[in-house]
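Q: Predict the bound structure with acetyl coenzyme *A.
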Amino acid sequence: MPTNSLTITDNRTGKTYEVPINEDTIRATDLRKIKVDDDDFGMMTYDPAFMNTAACRSAITFIDGDKGILEYRGYPIEQLAEKSTYLETAWLLLHGELPTKDELTVWTNTITYHTFINENLKFVLDSFRYNAHPMGMLIAMISALGTFYPEAKNIFDEDVRNRQIERLIAKMITIAGFGYRHMVGMPYAYPDNELSYPANFLNMMYRTTELKYEPDPALVHALDVLFILHADHEQNCSTSTMRVAGSSHVDPYSSVAAACAALYGPLHGGANEQVIRMLTEIGSKQNIPAFIEKVKKGEGVKLMGFGHRVYKNFDPRATIIKKAAYGVFEVTGMSPLLEIAVELERIALADEYFVKRKLYPNVDFYSGLIYQAMKFPMDMFPVLFAIPRVSGWLAQWCEMLNDPDQKIARPRQIFTGSRKRDYKEIGQR
Ligand code: ACO
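A: Predicted complex:
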């Protein structure tokens, strides 16, 4: 008998089955041979939120939730945050290795020179109301962007694919910046090819009458670190959406728009906005104990920015962000909400309710405070998450397309509704 296998006895029939184990995993389809009789469809697994289902094999991002480890292509996030730049990290995610000096120069130039968007896209943006949510505009704009590149549907042509990847990464900051300018009723600020990626984004957000916009280097650095931290996080909700949409072989713009939509939700990319709202509502340090009690009583209130599906010890990104926050506040001045956040974290980490449930600050607990200090309106927070995550989504998308195991995603269901019955005329209902 092979040792790398699982022996399953079906007590309904008394039959025994042998299921191979590879990489600590069994293939769900191997369970289909477990049947009561020939008419039986076969055994399935029920896993509504993919709590214990591997939907792919991936070599991009490694997470050990218990130990608080996050690595991109084997490089610890702490080292990348300290030594790399977002564009270098994006290359790493996409290509599997850090770029050589020449590769990095060409890559940086390519991304820089693709930041301009077709002028017609501005008409799409102009048609939104002044108070349209920037994430709604971003989703629509990415989708619209794809219509300018009909060749993008040739997803199995590597050159075509790479060109769309360059365009998407480059134009994200332009679309995001233009979306903000539309929101505040200011003329669009065009890209400046002499600036770094994060500095160029700040330029398109905030430039007014100055001939040359020169953002504070400390803020540019903090933004770059935040971009690195958000670039990928293996099979989370939006990345899974990217893979599921992409599995139909649609063009990458449409898949990225779908992934952006998933990121928009308050349990995913919208959490840091909720953190700021929560801290504002708490208002002062003395109100914290009462707020914590409300959370513990489960009165529909959650401690936003706490808890994670995967990290059950600490979120390594939260540690880096907390440090970055102090760097930003040295330039912008202290945020009154930071005091509340620090005290809230201290009280929660010592409270049995949170300790027992392994609830720790996640990446969103401090990121919103940094964004707020840098004058980003709250509505822009998920956009700031989406900008760098595009590189992770695209790396995962390429991996999926090159994986012979992958097919169009199509989960099964356990049917719980009524079976065949006769149509009732309206008078009889
Ligand atoms: N505040 C209070 N209680 C919480 C919180 C929280 N933030 N998070 C989880 N819990 C409680 C749950 O009520 C549950 O308690 P119970 O066992 O008494 O029923 C227990 O902890 C386990 O929580 P689950 O909901 O099962 O954990 P899950 O892995 O499904 O959820 C999630 C993870 C969605 C992140 C959750 O912790 C949450 O809603 N946090 C707040 C939102 C947030 O910060 N999201 C950002 C995530 S990071 C990111 O997307 C970049």
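A: Strands lie at 5-10, 15-20, 61-64, 69-72, 75-76.
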